Amino acid sequence: MKFTLGWLKEHLETDAPITAIAETLSMIGLEVEEVIDRAEGLGDFAVARVIEAKPHPNADRLKVCRVETATGEVEVVCGAPNAVTSMKAVFAAAGSYLPGPGHTFEKAEIRGVVSNGMLLSEREMGLGEDHDGIVELAADAPVGAAAAQIMGLDDPIIDIAITPNRGDCLGVRGIARDLAAAGMGTLRPLNAEAVPGTFTSPIAVHLDFDPKTRDACPYFVGRIVRGVKNGESPAWLKDRLLAIGLRPISALVDITNLLTIGLNRPLHVFDADKVEGDLHLRLATPGETFMALNEKEYTLDGEMTVIADKSGAEALGGVMGGLHTGCTGDTVTVFIEAATFDPLRTAATGRKLDLQSDARFRFERGIDPAFLIDGMEIATRLVLDLCGGEASELVIAGAEPEGHGDIMLRVDRVMGLGGVDVAVDEIERILTALGFAVTAESDGLLRVSVPSWRSDIVGEACLVEEVVRIYGFDRVPAVPMVQDHPLPAPALTKDQQRRSRARRVLAGRGLIEAVTVSFMPGGQAALFGGAPEAMRLINPISSDLDVMRPCLLPNLIAACGRNADRGLADAALFEVGPQYAGDAPEDQAMVVAAVRSGLSEPRNWATPARPVDAFDVKADALAVLAALGVPVDKLQIDTDAPPWYHPGRSGRLKLGPKTVLAHFGEVHPGVLRRMGVKGPVAGVEIFFEALPRAKARKSAARPPLDVLTLHPVERDFAFVVDAGVSAEAVLRAARAAEPKLIAEVDLFDAFSGGTLEAGHKSLALTVTLQPRQKTLTDAEIEAVSGKVVAAVEKATGGKLRA
Amino acid sequence: MEDLDALRTELMAAVTGAGDAQALEGVRVAALGRKGRITALMKGLGTVEADQRKTIGAALNQLKDAVADAIEARREDLADADLDARLADERVDVTLPARPRAGGSIHPISQTIDEVIAIFAEMGFSVAEGPDIEDDWHNFTALNIPPEHPARQEHDTFYLPGTKDGARMVLRTHTSPVQIRTMMETSPPLSIIVPGRTYRCDSDATHSPMFHQVEGLVVDESTHFGHLKGCLIDFCRAFFGIDDLPVRFRPSYFPFTEPSAEVDIGCTREGGTLRIGGDDWLEILGSGMVNPKVLENCGIDADRYQGFAFGMGVERLAMLKYGIPDLRTFFESDLRWLRHYGFQALDMPNMTAGLGA
What count of other Cβ atoms lies within 10 Å of the Cβ of residue A15? Predict the structure, then answer.
């Protein structure tokens, strides 16, 4: 919302400097975005009179002007075609700084004539791009006066952000009222003296709604002014509109804009001679078309309010007038319309048609429904003043909607909710200054009647806000949060702690945390299990961010690809975040996913470089699971990872037959190819929701330490098994051979080929025996060894290597 | 009887002359072995006159011990020399680089959220969460943002095809729906903060379609606007590590709070660089007293209970505190950026050790 200081002062009597006004605006909730002083940098420029403009003796296109300035007559060489004898222009003496081009100019000899200054164009003054000629000032502008003042530029512009609740401040007067309440001056009275009508309007107005849709337009005030001359507006009106970025059109239209911005009263002016018959307010017929003032045609639905005549919709209520009945320079009879339109219906109409306007912006935020007649009288007077003519009696349809009832304010709620003790008379002063009517109901209780323009005030809390807002948020004493408990309980739940821990474990293992968006390209989602239709955004930001991701890996894989394109092929990234299977809360699953790409570690002198593989990410998975309290020794591994993994180099970690805690493995090379990422990439996904719940323990105490004094004994075995036998099966068989004695079985070698028969492989194990009662004899060790061999052979067909 | 002194001299010379462990062993065997010369002399003691036997025996024993000691000492010397030679041989170039060990890191968003949690945990807040995909009621209506309300249009909402109660499902535009979920599921008094992903259909230099917020909510019987001020002033000062950071509260509007306030902190923009602390102002978060309508929508008695709520952008906090210039870079997963702006795994923020300001 832009306005000038002069416009504000028309409503607010104040001597406050603009800095104080701007500061106060921000501190009462009308946030100043910018204060623009258009006169800045123009102080050196003054009004001058061209005594005589004659052709330059040595140049066809130049003129030599004798110029009268405040300090005497000077000669200026000027190239402007509009420089003529006796005009008033803007003079800059040699040595002045020109804001437009951004340099200082000096006295110069131009084709043999000395030029002692310049007559300025708008572009040279930094006011615009117009360079066709010099600025021409009014003939009565006094020589030597500040050009900025004569040009109406000494009135600074204030631009404020209006929050959606403060529709009343979409008019300069509303802003002035708030400032007055905050001690920045006095609100001037508004002259809305009635203009007597001399005839009855030939156009009548009908509100054609049923009881259910009556709110669409409950109240309408109109009037004819005949015999007008719709010319250009006077300079003061044009300047005012131009200052805030509105284009002057014609006096009648400019008056409607003046009331919209100044008094927050949108109006529409019909060329009454183009209206056929009476005006009917009604809902549009579905499919009805409407040609708006912006020269675009709109197709309406049955929920939109129109102002129609015999030939159809002539205006879209609260949004925009129609082209057909719009006022032009030929208009001699004008019908002025002021109405109340339903905020929600207006908003919906504008949104559905994608049609924004100053009127819609105001109506959807709530317009003062009691300001129709006063607004009409003020507008009529302006029309009569600027365009002449003769006003009809008012045409009134419907009635002002009833305001909501009074609100009771318990005075102690200002302290109880607002946190500051404000004296009752100050509360009353503030509310009264804002337009509320306040009466003391009983001790500590005020009956407050809400002004018609404050539809945002609906309860006691609203009143507390008004009081504290004007009294000053900075005057509310800050109170530290009082603790209910001397020491707070842990802020994080067990699940939240697990995610935090997973993060820190992976970062500790050398992986770098990424945060990627929850979206992904729909085309790639199919590679990762697919996104259901319900996960496809209606209005994606772009076609490659159009579905909610069903899996965390693709964004990380794509990140590996982007980094490889920058020459960083070896990436180890992880993310902790959600994946989505549907739109119910329980369809969202928290996952930690990690990817490693390229080489497992940088090429170095100590160890040969090796591409990442499934075992890198398997180690990541086990480290995370162990850190999260999962009994990793009880995990089962199968090879049924989903299809985005390499079918022969991937697996799942399970706890029990059904609970899948993680997928891990090399990413399927076909998936990488389709994503345009060079492999290898290995990935892992761990599903937090699948993890066993952390058991609430009664005590933090650990079980007693069982120190075993007898030395463990290690025996090595090498088995030859079919290539298809899993290491896990061999290990499990060996462990189970004599559980009481076998403390650990580790696999220390695996190979195939060489002297081995084709289709076979060799797995070498170290079995650790832990005696508990007494040292094992050779015979006992041999017996256990025999059991291990037998167990492995029975379970896997493996033979001890000779 | 041999001249023991001469023998001593000879054996000692042999010990000293033994160039390696094998030669030394030869000396030992020749002197002290079963057939060694000293052993032989010891055996010959029986033939010595009884009156000299004691003297000679003592001298022999002394010689035997002296030679044994000398052999042992020589053995140590030879071993040391061997070791020295081996070690000299084992010399490596210790200026070779250490074996590589990749350094991981924590994303600034996670770190910032952990910092925010650490501060509010001190004030007794606990962490609550909710789904990213919300229904219209939780995201808007329950928060006093009715359909067609201008405030709703400012949200640039992402829509999904599914519906609930006739309204399309949305990606939550703020973390505020978790206020509603928490108030529906628990009873006052409560004080929560809600970190999480949020979404707006907007993308340019200062907007990302996904970003993070931390929401806060306190509901009890007595918390008022002064507490809101105290809580957030303390937070801003702790987060930025500036004890006297200026903090101001400006009236604003959010449909779900009343009164509502935007919170500015002091900054300077001198030299074109934004720095926290100073007498210019920078908007940092939105806040307010919970609108009674919101309490009522959650079935909470608004005559008895009241409280405050606030919300802040995590990326913005991180950018301001850690001097990260561009919002869009947060989600690009550029390794160079992640390494530069990331945090070490062990930098777990807490108020005991401080917040890494």
Answer: 8
Q: B-chain residues within 8 Å CB-CB of A601? A: 100, 102
The per-residue pLDDT for A279 is 95
**Measured between CB atoms, which of A508, A556, A583 is closest to B104?**
A508
Chain A contact for B100 (CB, 8 A cutoff): yes
Q: What is the pLDDT of residues B255-308, one digit of tens each?
A: 999 999 999 999 998 888 888 988 889 999 999 999 999 999 999 999 999 999
- Inspect the interface and report whether the beta carbons of A481 and B227 lie closer than 8 Å: yes
Chain A residues lying within 8 Å of B151, measured CB to CB: 164
**C-alpha to C-alpha distance for A408 and A445, rounded to whole angstroms:** 7
Residues 74-93 of B with CB under 8 A from A: none
Q: Which residues in chain B are contacts of A516 at CB distance < 8 A? A: 331, 333
Q: What is the pTM of this model?
A: 0.88
ipTM of the complex: 0.89
Judge whether A369 and A299 are in contact, CB under 8 Å: no
Which of A561-575, B30-44, B291-305 has the least mean pLDDT?
B30-44
Beta strand residue intervals within chain B, DSSP E: 126-127, 133-134, 159-164, 167-171, 190-199, 210-220, 247-254, 257-268, 275-276, 280-290, 306-313
DSSP string covering B117-158: HHHHHHTT-EE----SEE-HHHHTGGGT--TT-HHHHTT---
Q: Distance between CA A774 and CA A790 in Å, rounded?
A: 25
Write out the DSSP string of A697-721: PS--PPPPP----SPPEEEEEEEEE
Indicate the residue of B133, B209, B293 with minimum beta-carbon distance to A588: B133
Reduced to 3 states (helix: H, G, I; strand: E, B; else coil), residue B230 is: helix
**How far is C-alpha B234 from the geometric centre of its chain's CA atoms?**
24
B335's enclosing H/E stretch is helix B335-341
Whether residue B249 is predicted with pLDDT greater than 80 in this model: the reply is yes
Q: A90-144: per-residue pLDDT in tens?
A: 999 888 898 888 889 888 888 888 888 898 988 888 877 777 788 888 888 898 8
Average pLDDT over residues A729-758: 91
Q: B202: which chain A residues are within 8 Å (Cβ-Cβ)?
A: 541
CB contact under 8 A, B226 and A588: no
pLDDT digits (tens, 9 = 90+) for A463-472: 999 999 999 9
Rounded mean pLDDT of A1-16? 95
**Mean of all residue pLDDT scores within chain A:** 92
Nearest chain A CA: its distance from B321 CA (Å): 19
Four-residue CA torsion sign, A339, A340, A341, A343: positive
**Terminal alpha carbon distance of chain B:** 91
For B78-82, the CB contacts below 8 A with 24+ separation are: B78/B18, B78/B20, B78/B21, B78/B24, B79/B21, B82/B21
Q: Give the distance from residue A689's alpha carbon to the nearest chain B alpha carbon, in angstroms.
A: 14
**Rounded mean pLDDT of B326-345?**
95
pLDDT of residue A722: 93
Map residue B31 onto helix, strand or coil. helix
Secondary structure, 3-state, A455-512: CCCCCHHHHHHHHHHHHCHHHCCCCCCCCCCCCCCCCCCHHHHHHHHHHHHHHHCCCE
**Contact A514/B150, CB-based, under 8 Å?**
no
Whole-number Å distance between alpha carbons of B212 and A371? 44
> What are A413's two structure tokens?
């709620």
User: What DSSP string describes B163-188?
Assistant: EETTEEEEE-SSSTHHHHHHHHHS-S
